[in-house]
Amino acid sequence: MVSSVYSAGISGIDGYIVTAECNATNMLPSFELVGLPDAAVREAKERIRAAVENSGYRFPELSLTLNLAPADKRKEGSAHDLAMLVAILHAGGVVETGVDMSCRCFSGELSLSGQIRPVRGTLSMCVAARDAGLGEFYTSPANAAEAAVVEGMRVYAVPDVKTLVDHLNGETILEPFSPPPFDSDGDAYAGLDFADVKGQARVKRALEIAAAGGHNVLLIGPPGTGKSMLAKRLPSILPPLTFEESLETTKIHSVAGTLPEGGGLVRVRPFRSPHHTMSAPSLVGGGKNPMPGEISLAHNGVLFLDELPEFNKLVTESLRQPLEDRRVTITRANGRVTYPSSFQLVCAMNPCRCGYYGHPTHPCVCSQKDIHNYLSKISGPLLDRIDIQIEVPSLSFDELSSTNAPSESSSSIRERVVKARRIAAERIASVHDEDADVPVGGVRCNADLTPRLIRRFCVTDAEAKRVLESAFDRMGMSARAYDRILRVARTVADLAGSDTITAAHVAEAVQLRSLDRKYW
Asked: Nearest CA to 177 among 125, 121, 136, 132?
């Protein structure tokens, strides 16, 4: 007898259907597993045998040949355990032969006792099952919450093998898992509020503009001025995650195995802050079996690189292409995968190795050569891709000790940010509706505007054009820097509620990226 049961695998962050085909014949008992399995899949033979016996069933004493199709694609991980077990039990008669397997997909790792454990990438697998026309998805209780958000699928949380077999045979009936309604967790960063930051009004304004337009930021200043403190509070003023963004983010974290057990959808924008000793593959993704890197784990959120010059230059230079393309493609001998990486880059650094170059009271002990060598670790092309570069100065005693004027809270700033984002989104959507040829795919905020959309949206008046021309000639801008200033000016205008970019908007945008000329 031949039994076919569906499972699913992962390629990149997308799922694909795997068919577990079991052929059982009355010959000497044996168990052969084919279909290009890796070590974890081959070891499933012993997990399946122990799980069947410890669940109270007799392992079929038949000649079993189990094939994982498509046979030319390497199968990795333990997610196919459950489907292989069901295929064997169905072929051996433990699961009744009349049970229809054509609409069911199974995903889960088996323990020796018969319990079903969680696996990575469940959300992507459930999406693949739905797209393949399957209607039911069986998985571990710890994975049910993320799978159940897929519309059109009945998801069953199965704790162990016996419960699954009884359900398939109709002896007990499991109810489909119902996910809680989606609600972005706006209070996740409630403990990190801009009201805690004293002074630094200009830096807060820069971060507000960055949040409103999705712009990258570089903070430069001496130690102890609040660079890290400010950067960690940026997510508290970003707009809440939409359901579509939450699905994208959850897929990545599910594949990477960073989702909390039973947590379901990611409901808050990610904030990733890797250490400066990390390698390039850790940042962009990679490995023998490619996995998402930090830039993909920060998708739809913030990637914070503290002490930027301390990172290996190979690591920081690997950011250049993902910052432009909003995705990263990893090519290995056994295939190619593409991960999304639409993140907001926030960097912090000292102006020199000792940290006190340009400090009003603390003397700098670095030579000019030392300062030059330190700053040269940040290349011009990378600086070009950072829209906002702001100096974070030291605060005076009066500014630190003052209690007269409390700082503005994150919730107040967030209201303005959300309003500006809504204006930008409506503008992009209206152009898409009017002209289907406008390439707006993937454009979510002003930082993503293409050159064609910049020409259409970033309309300046005569005075603003003169200010921009003067800055371009004086600062020796590149074409990329010119476009980025226009994008930032568009965001400043949105925060002001202006359709046209004025000279004041351009002047503020120019001031927000002038530090590359001061230091570099």
From this structure: 136
Q: Please check whether residue 235 is in contact with residue 266, taking contact to mean a CB–CB distance below 8 angstroms.
A: no
Helix (H), strand (E) at residue 157: strand 154-157
Contacts of 468 (CB under 8 A, 6+ apart): 460, 482, 485, 486, 506, 510
- With residue 344 as reference, give the H or E element that holds it: strand 344-349
Domain 194-408 falls under CATH 3.40.50.300: yes
Helix then strand count (H, E) for the chain reads: 22, 18
Q: pTM here?
A: 0.90
Residues paired with residue 136 on neighbouring β-strands, in sequence order? 104, 154
| 34 has pLDDT over 80 | yes
Q: Is 275 left (phi over 0), alpha (psi -120 to 50) or beta?
A: beta
Residues 374-393 pLDDT 10s: 998 999 889 889 999 999 98
| Comparison of pLDDT for 277 and 514, the residue scoring more | 277
Residue 436 binned pLDDT confidence (cut-offs 50, 70, 90):
very low
pLDDT digits (tens, 9 = 90+) for 460-479: 888 988 988 888 877 777 78
Structure tokens at 72: 């030319």
- Please tell me the predicted confidence (pLDDT) of residue 186: 59
Q: With the C-alpha atoms ordered 45, 48, 53, 58, is the resulting torsion angle positive or negative? A: negative
Indicate the pLDDT class of residue 177, thresholds 50, 70 and 90. Answer: very high
| Burial (CB count <10 Å: 0-12, 13-18, 19+), residue 432 | middle
CATH topology of domain 2-168: Ribosomal Protein S5; domain 2 (3.30.230)
Where do the domains of the chain lie?
2-168, 194-408, 413-519
Q: Is the pLDDT of residue 133 over 90?
A: yes
Q: How far is 418 from 148, CA to CA, in rounded Å?
A: 29
**Dihedral sign of CA atoms 222, 228, 233, 234 in order:** positive
Q: Give dist(CA 159, CA 272) in Å, integer.
A: 33
Element (DSSP H or E) covering residue 345: strand 344-349
Angle at 197 between CA 195 and CA 203, to 5 degrees: 110
> What is the CATH T-level fold of the domain 413-519, as seen in this structure?
Helicase, Ruva Protein; domain 3 (1.10.8)
Other CB atoms within a 10 A radius of the CB of residue 27 amount to 9
Give pLDDT, residue 142: 93
Locate 439 and state its tokens: 């390439």
